[in-house]
User: Fold these one by one.
Assistant:
Number 1:
Amino acid sequence: MSQSDLAIAHELERTLALLERADAIASSTALDELIQQMLALLIEIAEAEAGTLYLVEDESVVLSAVQGDEASCALIGARRPRTAGLLNDTFAAGRPLWVEHLAADARWDSSLGELQNVELRSVLSLPLLLQGQAVGAIQLFNPVHHEARLLQLLGNRMASELEKARLLERAKEREARLSALIEIIGHIGSTLDRTQLLEVIMHNARRLLGTEASSLFLLDPESGDLVLHVSSGPLHEKIAAMRVPKGQGIAGYVTETGETVLVKDVSQDSRHYAQADQQSGFATRSILAVPLSTRTISLGSEREHWREHNIGCIEALNKIEGTFDDDDVLLLQTLARQAATVLEVAKLYADVNELFLDVIQALTAAIDAKDPYTEGHSQRVAEFAVAIAQQLNCSPDFIHHLRIGAILHDVGKIGVSDQVLKKPGYLTEEEFAEMRLHPVIGQTILGHIRTLQEELPVIIEHHERLDGSGYPEGLQGQAISLGGRITAVADAFDAITSDRPYRAGLPVEEAFRRLRAGAGTEFDSSCVEALWKAYSSGLVRTQKERAALRQTDQQPTSELSNAGAVSSA
Amino acid sequence: MSQSDLAIAHELERTLALLERADAIASSTALDELIQQMLALLIEIAEAEAGTLYLVEDESVVLSAVQGDEASCALIGARRPRTAGLLNDTFAAGRPLWVEHLAADARWDSSLGELQNVELRSVLSLPLLLQGQAVGAIQLFNPVHHEARLLQLLGNRMASELEKARLLERAKEREARLSALIEIIGHIGSTLDRTQLLEVIMHNARRLLGTEASSLFLLDPESGDLVLHVSSGPLHEKIAAMRVPKGQGIAGYVTETGETVLVKDVSQDSRHYAQADQQSGFATRSILAVPLSTRTISLGSEREHWREHNIGCIEALNKIEGTFDDDDVLLLQTLARQAATVLEVAKLYADVNELFLDVIQALTAAIDAKDPYTEGHSQRVAEFAVAIAQQLNCSPDFIHHLRIGAILHDVGKIGVSDQVLKKPGYLTEEEFAEMRLHPVIGQTILGHIRTLQEELPVIIEHHERLDGSGYPEGLQGQAISLGGRITAVADAFDAITSDRPYRAGLPVEEAFRRLRAGAGTEFDSSCVEALWKAYSSGLVRTQKERAALRQTDQQPTSELSNAGAVSSA
């Protein structure tokens, strides 16, 4: 083999070795690492003193790497328009440009020369081509070798690897968003803790959009102000009590119009409510704000009658890297939808519960309107019944329905005429026949309310007696539901111990004497003894004991608060 | 330059040209294309007669490409364990193996030789190395060149590109899933059409999991059967009426236990309900089934009291390519959560609406229980009031609340004593004073129900008169709400025209004579004339006209159905 044979064989050898190194570098999928190592390899191949790498982004060119001049690394990230000059010529040519005497080249703008500590004499300017399109450029300064073919090959390889790394980076970001949505969807299905759910959503809004803070504002229907409800970010506590006056700020605008608003620089937007920043000490630079909207239906109309209305907004504040993009808008809108669903479900549960409680109050009011003398009777009977059931170790679920049933046990008295209902003293047989209708009337009224079906046994059976002498059905023993047996004892206990316009309430001892006398025939003795245990432990009080307590002001209690959750609305 | 100089220079030139071609091939991100083109390039470089490409998948090796022998392409996809043999030796060596005489090599199992139409003499077996790990191999048969360095370089390059293409393919799949979730979340917030939402979810389940069909089953609470609710797939219509008996099938198992079940081969799973396939003609091979669970709260108890319970399941049937993986499980569970949220929200809206309608029925029943003689009065007044409001072009929203208010206008009569309420003839001043309390009592009762606040003006003002001589407030003219003025006319019209136990209803002409006589002093004349217009157009009928119609059986109408949506429950 000749000398030149050897030289060329060596060259081939060297080329393959370089390509193997390029492969090793390319196996990394980290964008930054890839850029740095590939630039270093190209500088080495060209034996250049320094090198720079630019990437095209939209209509700009961004300086993305500098090697050979540490001081100039501070310039990384600098952005300039794609106008004339050597760089632009490189993009346009789509092939390497060699400039031997930089100083003499008109296209070279030395003020743009990034490298301050290297004397720039010559440059090899390589476009990074991806399927024929320039996606960036590498400039190698003062190179010993400027045969460009291998360099261009590696440059293009780099363009391809960069593109894939970028796609993968973007894919990773979207994967994080997918995971977050999956997580939030899972949460929404597994808890009703509205605050916790909103915190998860707002945390993810901040994390996935890469912003300094995120806030969720809800409209205060009274004042029209927007009140900060949940936030994520450094000033979490400081801004906890924030309130934006009606119609003010970008939040106000978004909530009023239902539009999404993206403000890259709030100092340029007159809608920005600067006072919020003064209050919080948080310097807002950029905002992405999306509306929160939920629906309401008109109760009692056809299902399709619903209206969407804005109940607040979500803001992402200060994008840390870059600017908000379309993906960010879509994600924040999606998170807002999820937050709105959380709020809607919570409100629906609250609505149906509130309506239910209201109805019980209204029915109680209807009983009271009919017979004001017995006011408080229903609530006391409920309390006694619950106390008995607790002594008997009944399930919370059973007790829950018992409580409501007992509150409503006399609702049928609405249909009993006043001369019978309010008659002092004994009833004639005819009058008593009318009075005995009230459990059935109660069942007729409440039978319409499908959510009160489990309460019906208490309503219909609270005047049955163990020996079958009760009404309306004359049921015997265990044929009477436990709820009915318990309420019968509770009802009798209150009737005996309470004052009525025509007679004073009897002492507790007398009441228990009578209940025990009736145990086994009229009353279930285990219920009677359970009430005794509850009473003697101080767990329940008669009407007269309450009145006495109220007079001495020892306890500013209301009858309502004693009946537990049902009346707490 | 010597001849050999030229040869080597030519070799370098050729190498770079090949690398440029490899770059062009690598710029594709389509996995299949990449495999085919890279294999072709290697065959060309080696001047081989044929080539095969294998990829490692878990513990198997999959034949992924064949070139040079079309007949053998049918074998693509064949899978074999990573055991001994030349392929395995190649993986283990981590470097190219050259076998000059295949027939003499003990490692070569000719029965495994994929190529039937090429006489296989020699092979260059190249591992595809990704960061030192073999992820596949290429075998080049009968090559002219077997200097492996460039081939190995390109092989490794290929491994790296394959890996990235795979990652991108996977990323694309996840991106499709992200988009679908975003789309579904958007839908959930923007419509209450439960069926449409579930169809979107089930369509996406089928599309994203790549299955032949997907089905959503809901538990029928009566029978415990699972009823097909929504499905996506070829047999959509044929299986529309499918029903799986209680506890049967994988659907039954999943719904009962709340477990996710993945069955790769249903013929091996005794839980599979084969009758479903017989009914539908759909041959189920594999199933992924996840439970649907929603929550219920105990109404009237504290908010935290909620229970999760399974209401059905979602099945994905027959994965088309490959088998169900963890991503599929997570996605289907997430879609099930979304479907559950849709069902939960729909149920909540239905619940609150149902409860509302029930309450109105119950309160109407309570009025009827008090005074059965006026049965039907409330519904007729509501109908007359709505007819007047429609003639006056009131908004649908106003009419909605007017209808409900009018149905309940007399609810306060519950609190009026019977001797007053049912007294035939004129009332004494004292009795009339009690009667005049009913609007206020009505307000007291309904004041408890926050969702009935807009109905209150009708309740409280339906006995006010324009000249201020009405009760309870003695309001004048426009100070009386329009709802109150309308209901006053509707109420009077029904009172005049209806039969009562103590007198017959008067003719319509007389009713309008009286209403017009009172117009301007007692009644709002525009309301009176609006009623006349509605009546004379045949839009409303009096109690007597209805009774007459019912007797002649011309129209089997019920009073309830005339009052519109409110009473349609």
Number 2:
Amino acid sequence: METFSFEELFHLLDQNKLKELRAELMEMNVVDIAEFIDELEGKRIALVFRILPKDLSAGVFAYLDSDDQAKIVQSLTDAELGYLVEELYVDDAVDFLEEVPATVVKRVLANASPETRSAINTLLKFPPNSAGSVMTIEMVELHDRETVDQAIATIRSTGLDKETIYTCYVIDDERHLIGVVPLRQLILADPQTKVSELMQDDPIHVNTLEDQEVVADTAKKYDLLSVPVTDNEGRLVGIITIDDIVDIIEDENTEDFEKMALLQPSEHEYLDTGVFTLAKNRIVWLLILMVSATFTGKIIESFEGMLAAIAGLTACIPMLMDTGGNAGNQASTLIIRGLALGDITPKDYFKVLFKELRVSLLCGVTLAAANFLRMLIIGGSGGTPVFMVVCGAMLCAVVVAKCIGCTLPIVAKIVHLDPALMAGPMITTIVDAVTLAIYLSLAKAFLLK
Amino acid sequence: METFSFEELFHLLDQNKLKELRAELMEMNVVDIAEFIDELEGKRIALVFRILPKDLSAGVFAYLDSDDQAKIVQSLTDAELGYLVEELYVDDAVDFLEEVPATVVKRVLANASPETRSAINTLLKFPPNSAGSVMTIEMVELHDRETVDQAIATIRSTGLDKETIYTCYVIDDERHLIGVVPLRQLILADPQTKVSELMQDDPIHVNTLEDQEVVADTAKKYDLLSVPVTDNEGRLVGIITIDDIVDIIEDENTEDFEKMALLQPSEHEYLDTGVFTLAKNRIVWLLILMVSATFTGKIIESFEGMLAAIAGLTACIPMLMDTGGNAGNQASTLIIRGLALGDITPKDYFKVLFKELRVSLLCGVTLAAANFLRMLIIGGSGGTPVFMVVCGAMLCAVVVAKCIGCTLPIVAKIVHLDPALMAGPMITTIVDAVTLAIYLSLAKAFLLK
């Protein structure tokens, strides 16, 4: 990938050479122009946006940060704003309106044409993250009785306004979705063929209220360039295109990363999120887990006498806890990811558990043996009996941790909780208590006279 | 998304009603047919594959598990195998050949046409995960002197063999990539227009040796349906299509999840990976982290007398360690993800650190206060002085943990290590040692007479 240096552009801007700047910008990709504008501050944002040729401006606008979009809207006249709204794809307009203050929304809608306003309002009403909220209504619709020739004429006459023309959807007179034809097939077919002969019946589709994650999974599974969206009566109401699907995939992955660290998912990029929001997103789970650690405290308290009496026991607690937590975390990560990608389903549970049992025995024995060697070499305040108890506890901890780590995500899936919550921190808290209980019980059984 | 039930298909197969089964399969999507075949065992795999109509078989084959692909290849005659190889897209053929035993590869190549064989061999030679290894060579090439009419004729005559015809690449007589035209523009343009007038110059492209992650980032950034691949002389050698890019995105995310749990990335799905490989992928980091825990052990050992003397001190160790680890893990996860998505770059470090300082003070004070309350209510073997030391240590631990958590991924990025390694387990191990040192030093300073 080429990374752009905006030095020359900044230079032209500093010298107020706007004509040269405009010429340079016209040579660039809209994505790069947006990136350049995002690096500007204050009045320069609107200044540079306004020197763009009209046919580029909507494209650039769609890729800007929402802060910059709001600033630009404030600087536009009503006529300019009206033009911009009409040029934007409806789904891009909705994305932008969802992020800006209500006053901006009002002004934008006031300057849109009645059709655009009603389309935007419809999309704004769908629940967040539903298929309806991310779809666009700009798609190519064909009728089954048309010939290929007529279909291509339809596409030629309306294609400019459509977000994609590469997959055409076939509807009947009541707008029911009855088929799909890739443009590729239209181009390669005989001009007199009927669309109904070419189309694939009963196309894959999603409901407007379906979660966007399902949309992404559908597109991934069937390698689709766009997913059609239908209402409860099976009527075609919109499509979701692959560029938005790629964004959904990344959003869903980000959400999983955040959940696995027990963060409340955030809608904004890190640098754009306020300190209070960041703290609020983190504190709930930190508090819950801290309070849960009361159990580990109670376990230690009940063995306090023994820990004070036998040298070297306390020193090994962090190592056992950490190793148990890490072992459990590895298992749970693999299972959570497997569940998310559909490679693992709850019915595989016993296969998974049996696998983890064997893996954990292999890992546990290796770690216990390595640890025994380490203790013999480095020494420590305990003697061989303490070393043996520590290594026994290590083996048990790894086995128990891996079994808990593979079980909890699957249990979560079965009871319709998000498996991603059963990751590192949650597993660690549970495994720590179990590890400590095993370790201290072993010590009591074998070391206390 | 509709989930398929294969009950009826199994029923037909059990009754050996192959004609009816064939009719049912012909109504289905190739992806669903492949899913059905993947659920079969033994001889039935090849049996069902062989009743498929010829025009579906290559499509279905590309979506099968590699185990099933290998089984099917063994059952095919040389002529059938030759047909299959020619029908497969070259990148699908390469994906399959990379997974099967060398004997199968030999037989497949022996039955391919000389052109296909040479194309496959070329792709097989590129380093794993390079653009060259994932590209396909089936793309639409136009010349700049052609008119739209001629271009569409070229596409019509060669389009069937091309993996995508939606983005056409323009080359000069030395095959240098000089432009790009979306099919959309060709369809909408006047038939007599020259391709050179429509094409966008200097298209975005990647080198054959570029990492696939860069390919995915490029496609995401510019919303491309395919990314052209050029050699060192700028000649067009292949393209990477969006369906493969989506797979790359998911692979890269899986790799990040695995690295963040300190697992060696695995090339295969969990259920297809052997116990020894799974254990091997986990043991290295478990060993390293276990040995690193020697430090925490040494810290505790050096305070052993104090811990034995003051009741309640030891009991709080797990809670402090866990909370520190969790706090650090939250920060590092956000930063790692931000770095991966390009939202955060190393030059943002001081902004990030200042943000984390403020967030950690907010979280730390809240947690310390909550913990003080908790200790007052639940009690514990220590008294108020112990409680105060624990809460002071809690505040310090959270602040230090968040600062370490946001610093290490950025440092890793700067020294060209993978930031994903600086996640949960690694951060926990480091934060644990620091937390313990702070806690026990505070206790020594304020509680030891």
Number 3:
Amino acid sequence: MDRVMEGKEIDILYHLGLDTTQDLSIFKDVKFVCMGGSAVRAASFAEDLRKRFTPDVEGPPQPVGKTERYHIYKVGSILSASHGIGMPSMLIMLHEVAKLLHYAGATNVQYIRIGTCGGIGSEPGTVCVTTAGCIGTLEPVYEAIELGERKKYSAAVDSALVERLIQVAGELKIPAVSGMTMGTDDFYEAQGRLDGALRPSFTEADKMAFLKKAYDAGVRNIEMESTAFAAFCQRAKIRGGIICAALVNRLNGDQVTSTPQQLGEYSLHAQTVVSEYMWQELHTKDADDDSSAAKRARCT
Amino acid sequence: MDRVMEGKEIDILYHLGLDTTQDLSIFKDVKFVCMGGSAVRAASFAEDLRKRFTPDVEGPPQPVGKTERYHIYKVGSILSASHGIGMPSMLIMLHEVAKLLHYAGATNVQYIRIGTCGGIGSEPGTVCVTTAGCIGTLEPVYEAIELGERKKYSAAVDSALVERLIQVAGELKIPAVSGMTMGTDDFYEAQGRLDGALRPSFTEADKMAFLKKAYDAGVRNIEMESTAFAAFCQRAKIRGGIICAALVNRLNGDQVTSTPQQLGEYSLHAQTVVSEYMWQELHTKDADDDSSAAKRARCT
């Protein structure tokens, strides 16, 4: 984060239910912030992480701060958080978590969004790793209006992290693709769905033509957060990645028709890849540190 | 709703956890859908409504459908629902609730969004009744991108409902103003806040100049849902209103500094107005119906 809260005595992280009068030092060791829309998934992922990363700690993990809007769990050096649906909801959490970790003195933190999505040419269960977010016109940007002026920010994603996530998915034999992710501000018309409550201005044939055009432009999935997430991470100089499990292949239909059991299994695919990625990152780093320490020890 | 789901055997209202294979007839009598961001407020409002409208029913009300994304409570002919933060999250609920009520055969349903907001020239506790939503450029529209094309929809609100809500607030001696409501896709930079995690492109002076310009254009408050809500209701031919309690006067500062007790009290202001409005609507209508029934009885 390139901004220091200068001249401020107290900062109230209103939506998290935390503020700078509290002791935030427990967050100093955070290295990963994993986030997704659902509070239920944030909790279950936190419990899965506890079993793997901190098995000696009694579970299940309890949320930090207030839970009216977001749920945040801390498991070792990992936060598992829910951001609700859509960019506006997620941005509040991104701003307040970034401030929280800044105040706590955490460094080199990676943010990973773990979501569900509609695949474009990707079958249910495939994990889609985002190379860049794009808006509905297929431009790879996040659009905002600030003080009456329209702004565009790049929505590209750290390419080294994309490669690592694809590599780890391969090691786990989980089907994975990388490509652009269309981030929309609506689940129905903005994603070309014909099954919303309103009479859309387009036909089934229009929709299929657009989805094919998006595919040809390199879009592999559609969700509701990618452009704002990518732009935020880039501006804040945070290494950030997005990995989503496809629940439906939109080239075959609009509705989510898999069973709840299948959906649960598909969602787990993305979590499993991220869990393994973090395990490798933390343990390789530990190994590096050990090796450095060993080298230093030899020199003394 | 002007759309009939033709040729569909089953419609899955995925995010509500309901579908058309279930008996949805309990929703046939619904006349009001009240909604706000927070699940906690949806529950407490439902309980307040139960005590007033259906005191013989044991409480507290239990949510309908799944609660992973949204919480919906039914109290007599009223639904109290949470839609999360922001337009993308709210739109999913609007589409799926409108379809639900359509399938259930409910008629003449009014939708009222009860929120919290930043006031512009309105002190904390004032209720702001929306005459139209506007985007950050101050145009009274909702903007969308559908199949690659940019669209604008009118975000005007039913003026008769605005007048009634202002009238009821007056009867209850709750401070109220009406005016345009700026609906933004972000709580920080898009609302001109300087206290987010990113270095904004504007200064305190720029912000104040913009807020004053917005005030002069007729904007009285800022929240994150107004334009999409107003446009949805207008397109779906639903009578819809928006009433929000100001938690801060943005002409005086950015941060929410009231105590939790004060904030709870302010939030209640908007709920109290809506509760009284619905009471009057239902009981005046009942009186009309009784009177019509009496007339019909006299004619037979």
Number 4:
Amino acid sequence: MGAATKTVTLDGQFRMHRGGELESPTLAYETWGALNARRSNAILIFSGLSPSAHASSSKADPSPGWWEEMIGSGLPLDTDRFFIICVNSLGSCFGSTGPASVDPATGECYRLDFPVLTLEDVAEAANGVVRHLGIERLHAVVGCSMGGMSGLAYCVRHPDEVRAFVSISSAARAEPFSIAVRSLQREMIRSDPKWNSGNYDRDDGPIVGQRLARKLGMITYRSAEEWRGRFGRERSTDGLGSGQFKIEFAVESYLENVAQKFTGGFDPNCYLYLSHASDLFDLAEYGGSLASGFKRTKLEQVLVIGVRTDLLFPVHQQQELADGFKAVCKDTTFVRLDCVRGHDSFLVDMDAFRPVLCEFFDSCGCD
Amino acid sequence: MGAATKTVTLDGQFRMHRGGELESPTLAYETWGALNARRSNAILIFSGLSPSAHASSSKADPSPGWWEEMIGSGLPLDTDRFFIICVNSLGSCFGSTGPASVDPATGECYRLDFPVLTLEDVAEAANGVVRHLGIERLHAVVGCSMGGMSGLAYCVRHPDEVRAFVSISSAARAEPFSIAVRSLQREMIRSDPKWNSGNYDRDDGPIVGQRLARKLGMITYRSAEEWRGRFGRERSTDGLGSGQFKIEFAVESYLENVAQKFTGGFDPNCYLYLSHASDLFDLAEYGGSLASGFKRTKLEQVLVIGVRTDLLFPVHQQQELADGFKAVCKDTTFVRLDCVRGHDSFLVDMDAFRPVLCEFFDSCGCD
């Protein structure tokens, strides 16, 4: 946890959506900007699977956050106007309670004794933080990737507590292609003998499986079109590997470097739980159809953004979200961006995303 | 090897394209139909990475082949008119010499001492079989997937020995997305401790890594669109797995069943060599550009077939092949099929492929 990260403990039994409970879980969060007197200018951000609550730098923690170019004075999530909150997802490992945390009942880490995690639990835990901050109604919920589904769960379950919703490269539920990819990533980690049925040594964990999972992640987070232009058949110059299987192409070096950076930073069991939660979410569970799910929201304004080259949350799923919201909220905007960097575009193609979010938050005013 | 499989030994030193040599390699092949008196009706088939030479059944071996519905009396590759040859690729493990074969110099299996394999070597070895059969010029070369690139190598290196070429779901060279996928599949196998730097026990090999690689294969051989219609969010009913990570969705069961069927059947080192060979091939190595490569062919007739939903050999690569051939061969046809089953369509969507190949071979007559 960074220096700007605060924590709150949700006292008592936290009942999990699919059964089981947590005893007084802790949630880590950061905030930027100031809450106004009417407590009406708060925006809650739900992150994708792997980020912490550190979405942006601040005086207390000047290190760049995962959405640094989106949050700040004069930026789309304008800290001069809004009070921005980002919560580390329940089940994650950056200060919030998850499988890597100590179970107060046993004094040992939960590991696989952690109950099944759903995005409903992620949403409810974040709602606990929002209430702790004394906020009754959010100006907006903004969710990226998995966080878009967590945000959707929030809007459906707390319809009177959200004014507007921004869904970025997300979906109303996972499709079989995405489920297959994530299921295989989890199997890669579980197949590493060092995973040891979840009881790995923290200093000697399933790094090999995590590296493989991360590489498959990158293959689905980016796009063939980007890599065609960026790497083509360029050869690698960094001499990684040896013999018959030395790294030969620049795209292989790129994946190797990305994988080496990532592993070690994220607890493997937490990854498994959050990845599984992404498969489980389905808006249609609210009333039996997607339409009935959308009907339970009471939003005044919705923005759905998607990217043409996204493999994991493809653009037709963005269209599905936009159509669903349009049926229940007149002020729904759908923006299909022509970025080439696939699912990751919202993290790396800020010049495309910033104007869209700027316009949205400019237009909605701040009461 | 099946009962219909024949073998030929290419006497002497077989010099490999990237260096090294093989001492008198063996090639396994099957044939269907009869060679005519002028020896002018032979069609050579290059398979994808994993099939054997058993492309179709015959009296000697009635078990169904991997392209059963394409080869036979009255079928597109019509055994009443043509003499069909399918060679098990050099480097494979179904009768042809490969990393799993015994090196005559040592009496031990080659394993990683096998020289770097290229699709040029696959093409040259097949050319040895064709010459052994006394055929000076092929009526046609037909190549599917990796085999399309092997076939391209054949046409470029033996321009006077091929009349027509059919490229099915293939490419002039691999793109970085496909390289990334195959590189990761190889890493999955090499990361399995049982791979043991290639020195695995044949009865206790890297099955876990092979299973993972096969699942990633299926994710790229099919399409999100097919799975959306076929599986949606249907739940699994077969109760595979247990606990937190039991199989939950039908698409996961499907992948599990496919992986269980495949593993054990293919030698892991052979897989690594053939997969790597697919990354290496580049038509532009013939003269410095794709255009110069195409110019070296002397084909009278070309057919390029591709599928809209192919992730691994995407349709723009089919267009690239077709455009390249059109510049040097007037009688070039490009057919873009609207199949939903992705790269695998040529193996499973025969109703779409058969008419296209029928028309091509009907039109070309048989001299």
